[in-house]
């Protein structure tokens, strides 16, 4: 049994949260849009008639189902492959964390695209500069302190005594924010020892070693997390 | 047994998606932040030490658990109270739709707050005008056509032969967008007969009649969905 993953080729984006879970879980999958003609193949697949159409990538084809929305795919993988607690409280807690991570990812994207996704960064650079100021001052500390607080009663993992998909996602969020806002993250993470620890624990997971060292692990590029030096400050 | 709901008083906001599910499901709850001192009580409650702290309202206190994130609360209520299909495929489909509705809600909010949630609309009105143009031209049609397409293979409900919490949420999204962008919604909904039908079906649910006619159903006001005439056009 193998799953098929569809996501925009060329950027890690939201697909990367799914990839990390698949890779760390040792779950076989094909990354269908990687390779020659991937973008047009994805475009064609998106237009396929389906009972349960996806609004946007990423989506996973599994057991005849089409499963879209990152947090929903991870909910499925978590239940099916034991990548999250099985009890109700733990399952809801991990889903809640994942949705909060998704909110942070969306905000990080909107910093460089505050006006419209259909315009380039250059067409909204002035608005982005204003948005980045608020994101650095208020939102980065708010999110990081929240996750630090979430780890206070748990730790080293967010739930239970092993990693869940939310730990992998939080690692990826920190990676992305560090890429986009290295100066701001350096000053903010100083007050977040548990979060820093979680990032290091995930980075050192034996289950991820091959993947993180491989060329399947894409650079951030012009994706959700972008480094524009003019948008960063300590 | 009764649940406790915490949400910002004075606006329907994201709390309303939870309220609609509770009300239509005939589930007993207290709306703790409504009434005298509600805002400061909510502020104090948010600071409570908790194993599983919420990042933001809404959150539900149920059976000793604190459950946050709108889609996560609805996932819980759907499973516990039969407000969604019980089979895996149907359950994931409804969660996927809810997450897509949540994305649309977030974008609708960001139109009037494209730069920062900490600033007023007036402080970002110029940016909002640009954002609204793209939202009206691209995003409203994209979301509505998607939900119309989702209903093509289902209908009159999004999943199964009775309403689920996603139907209630889609009703509320349409209500909100109609309030904020009445001209644009009038022209766009013309091509969405199934979506228009779903909205009418939910509005006519006997389970919601008392609630929708009561003063517990708050006006949109200065919440997520706001009507600024200068941001709307057909």
TrEMBL record, chains A, B:
One family name in Pfam for this protein: GST_C_3
Keywords: Transferase
Superkingdom of the source species: Bacteria
Keyword Transferase: yes
Coiled coil ranges: none
Transmembrane segments: none
InterPro entries associated with the record: Glutathione-S-Trfase_C-like (IPR010987), Glutathione-S-Trfase_C_sf (IPR036282), Glutathione_S-Trfase_N (IPR004045), GST_C (IPR004046), GST_superfamily (IPR050213), Thioredoxin-like_sf (IPR036249)
GST C-terminal domain location: 87-220
All residue ranges annotated as the GST N-terminal domain in the record: 1-85
Gene3D superfamilies according to UniProt: 1.20.1050.10, Glutaredoxin
KW Transferase (keyword) present: yes
GO molecular function (one): glutathione transferase activity
Gene Ontology BP terms: glutathione metabolic process
Protein's recorded name: Glutathione S-transferase
Species annotation: Alterirhizorhabdus solaris
């Amino acid at each position: 049994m193998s799953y098929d993953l569809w996501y925009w080729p060329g950027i890690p984006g939201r697909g990367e949260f799914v990839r990390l879970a698949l890779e760390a879980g040792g779950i076989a999958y094909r990354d269908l849009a990687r390779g020659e003609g991937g973008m047009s193949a994805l475009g064609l697949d998106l237009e396929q008639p389906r009972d349960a159409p996806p609004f946007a990538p990423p989506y996973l084809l599994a057991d005849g189902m089409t499963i879209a929305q990152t947090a929903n795919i991870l909910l499925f993988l978590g239940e099916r492959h034991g990548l999250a607690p099985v009890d109700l409280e733990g399952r809801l807690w991990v889903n809640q964390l994942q949705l909060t991570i998704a909110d942070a990812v969306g905000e990080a994207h909107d910093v460089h695209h505050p006006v419209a996704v259909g315009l380039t960064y250059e067409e909204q650079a002035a608005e982005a500069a204003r948005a980045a100021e608020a994101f650095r001052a208020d939102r980065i500390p708010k999110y990081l302190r929240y996750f630090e607080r979430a780890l206070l009663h748990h730790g080293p993992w967010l739930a239970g005594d092993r990693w869940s998909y939310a730990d992998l996602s939080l690692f990826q969020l920190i990676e992305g924010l560090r890429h986009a806002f290295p100066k701001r993250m350096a000053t903010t993470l100083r007050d977040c020892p548990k979060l820093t620890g979680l990032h290091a624990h995930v980075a050192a997971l034996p289950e991820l070693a091959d993947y993180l060292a491989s060329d399947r692990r894409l650079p951030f590029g012009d994706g959700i997390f972008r480094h524009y030096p003019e948008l960063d400050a300590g």
